[in-house]
Amino acid sequence: MLIVKKFGGSSVANAERIKHVAETIVKSYREGNRVVVVLSAQGDTTDELIEKAAEINPHASKREMDMLLSTGEQQSVALMAMAIEALGYTVISLNAFQCKIYSTSTHGNARIKDISTERIINELERKNIVIITGFQGYNRRLDVTTLGRGGSDTSAVALAAKLGADLCEIYTDVDGVYTCDPRIVKNARKLDEITYDEMLELASLGAKVLHNRSVELAKKYNVNLVVRSSMHDTEGTVVKEETKVEKMLVNGVAVDNDVARISVIGVKDKPGVAFKLFSLMAQKKISVDLIIQSIGRNDTKDISFTVTRGEMEEAVKILDANKERIGFESISYNDKVAKVSAVGAGMATNPGVASTFFEALYDAGINVKMISTSEIKISVLVDENKANAAAEAIHDKFISEGIQAGNN
Amino acid sequence: MLIVKKFGGSSVANAERIKHVAETIVKSYREGNRVVVVLSAQGDTTDELIEKAAEINPHASKREMDMLLSTGEQQSVALMAMAIEALGYTVISLNAFQCKIYSTSTHGNARIKDISTERIINELERKNIVIITGFQGYNRRLDVTTLGRGGSDTSAVALAAKLGADLCEIYTDVDGVYTCDPRIVKNARKLDEITYDEMLELASLGAKVLHNRSVELAKKYNVNLVVRSSMHDTEGTVVKEETKVEKMLVNGVAVDNDVARISVIGVKDKPGVAFKLFSLMAQKKISVDLIIQSIGRNDTKDISFTVTRGEMEEAVKILDANKERIGFESISYNDKVAKVSAVGAGMATNPGVASTFFEALYDAGINVKMISTSEIKISVLVDENKANAAAEAIHDKFISEGIQAGNN
User: Fold this and answer.
1) What is the tens place of the pLDDT at every residue in B134-186?
2) Is residue B240 within 8 Å of residue B196, measured between CB atoms?
3) Between β-strands B300-307 and A136-138, what pairing exists: parallel, antiparallel or unpaired?
4) C-alpha B49: how far from chain center
């Protein structure tokens, strides 16, 4: 088998962990596999480098930040190669230039455009274990780029797709994907399987296991993805197109605390108002998540939406500055809210899910502020201090009680 | 003017020093110069990385060591670019891949083969200050190489040669080349000019200002080289083909304490013995410096030579193991010796130099153990604890008393 294995920063944080991971890698190689490994920077390296840069220039260009930060992964791969050499196996480390991970030019948040795999294949044919820098690429000017948050996951999946790997294993500090964060819901349990779509909804809903872009890519190229523990040799969770097990109505519950609500009150009930409002947000690169529009008094309406907490202040400022242009009476905002979501591929074909969902919240005495639904998820906005109770109520109702598709 | 400036690790050791160097660079740029800067890794970065590697694998391959160590310079150049950005100037950092510093494949001690300067010239045309990683290159497999000790000096001179720079400034923690180490000879004074050949002899004799290879390269391509202080805005020392000032007989006195003497006693007086002996040393990559051969008793002779102290033990072991093959009676060795040398372009045409040199040592009551001469230098081996006195005596005689070529 050709296997791509990805290890995050905490898995390679010090010499001891690097040696432990080296043994995991060698074990797989000794079983007769061809092994490609993708690594992040060691532990806090990236944060330390960011701090170093801030001391010199708090407004450093992204181009130079990428030049700086990409050294972290290069150190990881070299050290890992040394650890594998020490175990007596042939190995080579490669950076983005060397294994030709070609990306867009958006420094700090580039996307992989292509990978020329000749060198990697050549090294595998020479019986080398190949260790590759995650998180980075280079653009057509040969400038170093980085792929943004969770970029190493994306590197691993892209390499697996391009190499036609049989398996892409994402090693993390948890042993798989859970039905909910075990720190929030104590009955949370590990899933054996989950679909790409469910994983996508969970990832974007604040379940920090896999980065969205990597799951999108895995779905697109049908990469056989596994999330598993870097510390224990347990089975992990398989992420795939269709799961074989009977579809659970809800496969995961996620809580996202990085949410703030903004309500624009007394907007004129004319065409184009929502467009004006959200194009202003888009211009400033402020991501808007949930949106609801309600009928207000007279010929006005209210528009509410959510943004991340860090962007609330700027969003409000922009709205205030454009009060005339948009035309509204007032703004209210609140960053003491959280989003609780339930995700399940089985939802799509089961009309009763919503009512069970709201029943659970009602039974727990939780007031819902906003609602948003998609084919396979329901999200609600609740008071921050009710978020965990809401998650527990939903998890208990759907997962612990084991409501399956078709039972409703 | 097109100027290449090189700053060593101590000049960029922390944020404060980086900012100071950034100002030095910008000052030169504001004077209308096109400026290319070559940097080493920050302060102790390289040593820290070596330590990190040793913890994981004390026998790591040189290929992976290069992959690891080259990150140090990449961090320096990115941080420096940020510091220059903060001052409001346009700047770009480039690593060896990006500015195509193509080298041999000898990891840990590669030599620059060629530099394709298109990118650098392009960036200069765009009015950028260009900051380049010293000490590194890449080979034809696109693997990262490092250039060995003093490699950043070599990078700077090679870039200056290839770019046809008007000037190559090597910034150090001293303010120029001295007639002797001021810690040894208190009358030592800074030279305004020195020839490439004199600099070469001084560099190889333990005056740690410029690395030999960089001076060879400067001589080969006639690069206008200046050694100056990174802390103070003083003139420095110009290194060039011919100095304009009246030739001093002796321009510099150097002391090298990293010397051990080995004497092979009672060697058969037959052809090929010296060859056998020194080819054994060469096979083990042990560098031999001074060599003398004396007539012994009967039909035997003694051969003495010097090696670095770190290699003495191994050299003796090799000799012992080959006692039969070489054919000798015994070995003696001593690592409590030092080499004291006087260098001066004026020596070549002045026959009286040697006698003045030995007169100085005789007056100071210093016993000479070995002698070696070249066109422009005289080296003697003395007891370690007499080395500084010897240097002072020679310095006083030739330099402080100002004996010039032709006066003798």
Assistant:
1) 999 999 999 999 998 789 999 999 999 999 999 999 998 888 888 888 888 88
2) yes
3) unpaired
4) 23
Interface of chain A toward chain B, CB-CB under 8 angstroms: 15, 18-19, 49, 52-53, 55-57, 59-61, 63-65, 67-68, 70-71, 74-75, 77-79, 81-83, 85-86, 92-93, 95, 97-98, 119, 142-144
pLDDT at position B407 is 42
Give the residue from chain B lying closest to A140, CA to CA.
Answer: B98
Task: Give the gap in angstroms from C-alpha B37 to the nearest C-alpha of chain A.
Answer: 15
Query: B85, A15: Cβ pair inside 8 Å?
Result: no
pLDDT attached to residue B408? 38
pTM reported for the whole predicted model = 0.81
In chain B, residues with a C-beta closer than 8 Å to the C-beta of A71 are: 71, 74-75, 78
Tell me phi and psi for residue B232, to 5 degrees.
-120, 150
Across the range B56-80, mean pLDDT stands at 97
In chain A, residues with a C-beta closer than 8 Å to the C-beta of B78 are 53, 64-65, 67-68, 71
Return the residue in B75, B107, B122 with the most chain A beta carbons within 10 A, the one to mutate for interface testing.
Answer: B75
pLDDT, residue B286, reads 86
Strand order in the sheet with B101-103: B112-115, B101-103, B136-138, B144-146
Asked if the model's pLDDT at residue B205 lies above 90, the reply is no
Amino acid identity for residue B185 in this structure: V
pLDDT on residue A404: 56
At CB < 8 Å, which residues of chain B contact A? 15, 18-19, 49, 52-53, 55-57, 59-61, 63-65, 67-68, 70-71, 74-75, 77-79, 81-83, 85-86, 92-93, 95, 97-98, 119, 142-144
- B364-387 pLDDT tens trace: 999 888 888 777 888 889 999 999
Q: What residue type is assigned to position B81 of the chain? A: A
| Contact flag B142-A97 (C-beta cutoff 8 Å) | yes
**Cα distance from B75 to chain A (closest Cα, Å)?**
5
> Which has the closest alpha carbon to B110: B62, B76, B55, B71?
B62
Please tell me which of the candidates A61, A67, A93 has its beta carbon nearest to residue B74: A67
Query: Which range has highest mean pLDDT (A284-298, A379-393, B74-88, B337-351)?
Result: B74-88
Tell if the CB–CB gap between B82 and A61 is shorter than 8 Å.
yes
Contacts of A108 in chain B (CB under 8 A): none
Contact between residue A398 and residue A356 where contact means Cβ atoms under 8 Å apart: yes
A19 in Cβ contact with A25 (< 8 Å): no
pLDDT at A297: 65
Burial class (CB in 10 A: 0-12, 13-18, 19+), B361: buried
Where chain A has pLDDT below 50, the residues are 405-408
pLDDT at A408: 38
Give A136's strand partners.
A146
**B278-334 per-position pLDDT tens digit:** 888 888 888 888 887 776 667 788 888 999 998 999 999 999 999 988 889 999 999
What are the chain A neighbours of B95 within 8 Å (beta carbons)? Answer: 67, 144
Q: pLDDT tens digits for A252-265? A: 898 999 999 999 98
Domains of chain A, each with CATH number or no CATH: 2-173 (3.40.1160.10), 244-408 (3.30.2130.10)
Q: Which ipTM value was assigned to this complex?
A: 0.80
Chain A nearest-CA residue for B119: A141
